[in-house]
Amino acid sequence: MKRYLIYIPVLLLISGLAGCSKKDNESLFGDTPEQRATAELQKNKSLLIAAPYGWKAVIFPGLLRGRGFFFKFDEKNQVQSYADPSLQIISPDLGGPGVSGYQMKALQRSSLIFDTYSPLHILSDPSNGTKGVGYKSDFEFSVLSASPDTIKLDGNFNHTPMTLIKATEAEYAAYQNKGFDAVKAALVNYAIATKGKKITLAIDATHNPECKIVTDQDNDRTFTLSFPDGQGVMQTQTTKWGPTVNSIFFQNAIVYNNMIINEVFYDSVKLSLYIQWQGKRYDLVVT
Looking at 61-181, which runs of residues are DSSP E strands? Predict the structure, then answer.
């Protein structure tokens, strides 16, 4: 009997220590998973809303070439959209500018959901493209990475990659004034003017890799950079692109001589293409 009585205080002591340990652990590891998920959602929504002139966007459906969008999000879960002009060919009544709804939700990851029909939904609508699957695109996206300037997304169902790039005031104005149509026409004209000619990226006297840009004129949207490596063996990098209001944006970065190329810009004054790297402009030269 005495032996049992001795055990009781010991058990109470262990129980008390366990309770303290649990509290200490909660304090040690900070917020709960639910609190962290809520904080992540709030942070990502704040980033979306904080861009005063919205976001340039490029998406790469599984069964279609890259497509461009523009989104401007507000705090009332409304999003203003402008879409690639090609979508009006697919769905004339629904491919134009408009306002629809969006949400941020904690699914497996912090997710951006376009929850009412918009031009973006044209790409995943099963009545378009391939019967039953559309163009194998998405309208619900997980946030892979987010900064004040760039947000990388991945489709929750088809894993469709989409990138949002913070727009400037001039770019927002261009979207509102049919800038998408202007850049599409410019790229087609560029393809016609450069057909059969050599295009190089003029970096310096010894670095002039050759470029090939495939546009809608040739029923595709790809960019290729070709150059000899240190042993003289030709290397080729190719990526898909989608249009913004003043550029073509790559699905995957092209890397050359420590230069990372995500985008080729269109100069509407000189009617030429160029890249920007570390604050310097490098032109694409046609010969």
Answer: 67-73, 78-83, 98-101, 103-106, 110-113, 140-146, 150-155, 161-166
Whether residue 101 has pLDDT greater than 80? yes
Q: Is the pLDDT at 138 greater than 60, yes or no?
A: yes
CATH 2.40.128 fits 42-174, yes or no: yes
User: Is 25 a residue whose pLDDT tops 60?
Assistant: no
CA angle at 41 for the pair 46 and 39, rounded to the nearest 5°: 95
Here the tokens at position 245 are 């209001």
Q: What are phi and psi of 237, to 5 degrees?
A: -125, 130
More confident residue, 19 or 94: 94
Burial class (CB in 10 A: 0-12, 13-18, 19+), 94: middle
Residue 258 tokens read as: 């420590």
- What residue has token string 């599409």? 184
- Residue pair 4/72 in contact (Cβ under 8 Å)? The answer is no
Per-domain residue ranges of the chain: 42-174, 178-286
Domain 178-286, CATH: 2.40.128
Inter-axis angle of helices 169-176 and 179-194, nearest 10: 90
